[in-house]
Amino acid sequence: MLIEKAQEGYRLSVEIPYKFNDQVTFASKYNGSGSGIIVAIDIAFDGSIAYTIEMPDRTWQAGIAAEEIKLIRPAPNNP
């Protein structure tokens, strides 16, 4: 993780294996299993990253680690 001073604040740069709107499945020891799209990426102070996945029923499951995720279909590269 890289934190740089920017013109009006700070710029945070991280390298992650998944991005917003990627379609994924997950199997988590603590958070169950399912599939959906990535809607949030949480970065903790220690640099650890967790994903939030929106399921087909529109509920969200937070706290999913990258190693618990498998990519089904990547989202387009444009936001």
The count of DSSP E runs of length 2 or more, i.e. the number of strands, is 7
Classify the beta-strand content into a percent band.
over 45%
Q: Please give the order of strands in the largest beta sheet.
A: 6-5-4-3-7
Any idea what the radius of gyration is?
14 Å
Q: Which stretches are poorly predicted, pLDDT < 50 over at least 5 residues?
A: none
Total DSSP helices:
0
Structural class: mainly beta
Let me know the average pLDDT: 93
**First CA to last CA: what distance?**
21 Å
Task: Give a short account of the largest sheet.
Answer: 5 strands, antiparallel
- Overall geometric form: globular
**Strand and helix order:** EEEEEEE
Helical fraction: under 10%
Keywords:
79 residues; mainly beta
Q: What's the layout of helices and strands?
A:
Elements: E1 2-6, E2 9-13, E3 23-28, E4 32-43, E5 49-54, E6 60-65, E7 69-73
Description of the structure:
The protein has strands spanning 2-6, 9-13, 23-28, 32-43, 49-54, 60-65, 69-73. It is mostly beta strands. The strands form two sheets. It has a five-stranded antiparallel β-sheet with strand order 6-5-4-3-7, with no helix packed on it. The protein has a two-stranded antiparallel ribbon with strand order 1-2. A hairpin with a 5-residue loop joins strand 5 and strand 6. The radius of gyration is 14 Å and the shape is globular. The two termini are 21 Å apart. The mean pLDDT is 93.
What's this entry about, in short?
This protein is mainly beta and 79 residues long. The chain has strands at residues 2-6, 9-13, 23-28, 32-43, 49-54, 60-65, 69-73.
